[in-house]
Amino acid sequence: ETGFQDAIKEHAGGTWSCTATASLSSDPSDDMSSDAALSAIPAIPDPAAFMAGSIGEGDGTCGMETGKLMWDASLNAAMEGLESCDSNVDEGSKTVMVDYPSCDATAATNTACSSAGGMSYTVDVACSETSGIGAVADWSVDYSKMPGCAGTSCTISDFDTMLKQHVETGFQDAIKEHAGGTWSCT
């Protein structure tokens, strides 16, 4: 959670909050506009990258399988393609939304995951700026159904107990680094 929050705060100030769920500046001297800061927020890399080093529950099969997938060049290329997914910025509601199901790179990622012998999954991450200060004060960023790829023995329990906190922290740090502010992600 704190990773994305810290990343946004660094660039735009404020306090931020972010959230992850899986399923199978008010300162006039700040010349960064909220639109410029938030519309350029990149699609975040696949959370499975965290999974290989984070899941150690049980016999470690999930972590080992996922770790092997991360070496697949076609899967890595497809996941990098997710950065091409467009962000929709709504100044009125102070919301940025990345809707992965509407992005062509999502299908390519799911196909590459399957070809590599993995299991596709999605993650919803909701982040909000919590300080109320800076160019991106009170904004939110929603990553809807972001695709990921994990070992076939991995479960939602693996994600919830071993990965969820890492994903939330990673998003907070990345957004803070990009746009500033203080973020909370769930």
Keywords:
186 residues; alpha/beta; 7 helices; 6 strands
Q: What is the straight-line distance between the termini?
A: 7 Å
Largest sheet: 6 strands, mixed
Order of helices and strands: HEHHHHEEHEEHE
The average pLDDT value, as a whole number, equals 76
Helix count from the secondary structure assignment = 7
Walk me through this protein's architecture.
The N and C termini lie close together (7 Å). The longest helix has 24 residues, at 156-179. The protein has seven helices and six strands; from the N terminus they run αβααααββαββαβ. With 186 residues, the chain is α/β, with parallel strands linked by helices. It has helices spanning 2-12, 34-39, 48-54, 61-69, 73-81, 104-115, 156-179; strands spanning 17-23, 87-90, 95-99, 119-129, 140-150, 183-185.
Short description:
With 186 residues, the protein is an alpha/beta fold. It is 42% helix and 22% strand. It is globular, with a radius of gyration of 16 Å.
